[in-house]
Queue: 2 jobs
Job 1
Amino acid sequence: MTASLGVVTPELIPFETPLTLERGGYLPRYDLMVETYGTLNANKSNAVLVCHALSGDHHAAGYHESESNKPGWWNHYIGPGKSIDTDHFFVVSLNNLGGCSGSTGPLSINPDTGKAYGPSFPEVTVLDWVHVQARLADHLGIKKFAAIVGGSLGGMQALQWSITYPERIGAAAIIAAASRLTAQNIAFNEVARQAIMRDPNFFDGDYADHDVIPASGLGLARMVGHITYLSDVSMGKKFGRSLPREDRDAEGVNFAVEQYLRYQGEQFSGRFDANTYILMTRALDYFDPTQNESSPLSQVLSTTQCKFLVLSFTTDWRFSPSRSEEIVDALIQAGKPVSYTRLESTHGHDAFLIPDATYERIFKAFMDRVHQDLGG
Amino acid sequence: MISHSYRIPDWIAKNSRVLDLGCGDGRLLAQLVETHAIDALGLELDPDKIATCLELGVSVIQQDLNRGLSNFNDQQFDTVIMTQTLQAIRRPDLALAEMLRVGREAIVTFPNFAYIRNRVQLGLSGHMPVNPQLPNPWYDTPNIHLSTFRDFEELCQTLSIRILDKDTSNLSGKRTWLGTVWPNLFGEVAVYRLTKES
């Protein structure tokens, strides 16, 4: 029996200990916007960390203010009786550092200058996020997460956790992810960044000083990204060659798919910050636990102590199944406990967010066992 | 549903590393984890069976056995098991060689086509046998490489595979008296424990 989490409320948690970042940056203090679902048990062993992807945030499940609003981005998979069962687990979800949904990021005020960081916000990496998440765990009194889960860039954080804090993670679910990006994947991110940077309203990232946002560039970045998150099949099914909807603005639009992409671009540029988008895509591009293959992935993973679930989707071409299988093979080589399924889906990379009975069942079976192994 | 042979647990060492090719719902591995504290890994194609493996706490990789085991190291496992799957593989000879590359020992079970019921059905009615051991019609069956005790042992010889132990059981995984005396005629399921000739 599954039910909704109902209305959930985020909390802003301040951290006053300074933070030195992997690529040399420094933050004297920072805030994290955090949501939690379920109840932390007495020995604090049932916590699950959910890591978000490029454009996600702390609002992973439930509803803000009223159930008529859009639910969190992973609402289908987090809740009572769901894959990440909040009757068993205490789920922690945060907006990563550098984000634009409440945690300290380019939109926040730099205490040294009294004005927003903007483009001067230091570069952050997946490893920085993992260290910050560990500090959040300390704050919550969680010594070890029962599981850390995420899709896409979120899966990369789960992978990094297994390497950086092997004793603090019991299980990792790495969904539609890769151990590092390919040149093609970095190329898509670069097109997105160029679309933003070439927008006349970008002003080298200081658009806030000019009271504008690079909406056109950010929208274009999202359009490009969105195409790579869908599949040829899913776009064909959803739009085919059909004509634009008449109830929406269709000026200069010839096909429904164009209208849809423009709508997605506009929605996104209204809610997301351009500097954050640049920062997040850079974190994606630089992620590489093998550090340019200075040691093979199987060796990097040899010190991990958790069990792994790796999932991929057949029509995902942004993070294709073969990229997930690289992680699986490295874990096999390292002799680590790993389970893997390549799930049938027509939804491309976005499949990790979309309801699917087989995906749910496998994800739930793994998580239920994690709970069972905690000892009830 | 054909049960696993009663002999398999006898051939597994405690705390050993075991790979099960076509592990199904993971019951055999889960049982061996319980009784022999093995380090278990299964390969399976069917997502529903994979979910059952995960519920049992058995690690499982979705992998097509026809594509080989190239992602595994030489001698990575103590024992590689394949129950009732050899006959459904495109190249049983290559599969056996791969099993003994990644594992020190292999345990293989398959339906014995020379079992008396099959001989009678084929011999008297002139039809391909359809029965509890081989339930599918010839045109729609996963069992594309049926063999007998004798055929299998010939193949082992060709591949320089040493037979460490052999047994037979009925479909419920139990020993039968006649099958033990005359396996190629009365054994329904052939059960072998193999290693590479040194």
Note: Chain A has a mean pLDDT of 96.
Job 2
Amino acid sequence: MKDRKPKSVFIEGPISSEFIGDSIAKHQSKTTIGAHNIFLGQVRADTLEGKTVKMINYSSYEEMANVTFHEIREAAFAKFDLSCMHIYHSLGGVKAGEICMFIFVSATRRKEVFQAIEYLVNEIKEKVPIFGKEIFEDTSHQWKVNS
Amino acid sequence: MNLTIKYYGLLAEAVQRQEELFWFSQDSIEELLEALYAKYPPLEGMDFQVAQNNKIVPTETIITGTEIVLLPPFAGG
């Protein structure tokens, strides 16, 4: 297994559609790729006891998160035959309807990218120390827990 | 030994700090948690994991680092 440098995953604030579009465009020169798959996590306006989530403020134990993201990337490259993989996650405030996570995998053929994306999303949700403070319209808050 | 204890999310709110220096003379994380529960009673009933050297570790683990991190449930993605 090739040792890849740890990449920076965190982006301050929401992930813009321009950033996502540019990432796709950058792969047009890589013509051995035949299949991309993308997962976008979007902040949901959950309602709890009549109050609606306005935004999530993400924080992380970044030192461990960066190590864990690197391990997850390496495991996915070992498990699936991928040409490339990009993972981005927001820190700070992301409003309901905005994108907080962007995972982009590419391979020669489609089968690998479907499996890889599901593996990556599950691993990230389970293993990376990211915390989400859900802020309601009345400025009260609760801490999100992945189900 | 002087340990740095870090708290995140809901735990930081419960103990009203994000980190502290904590003098501790025993060996295991379990013993450290007992000492922290005595200082911060609300912590005892809370759901969290403990990390040492960037890894989640079981509570019977012997402390080898100088930094112990208390992590509430994850919410990434």
Note: Residues 48 and 73 of chain B are 6 Å apart (CA to CA).
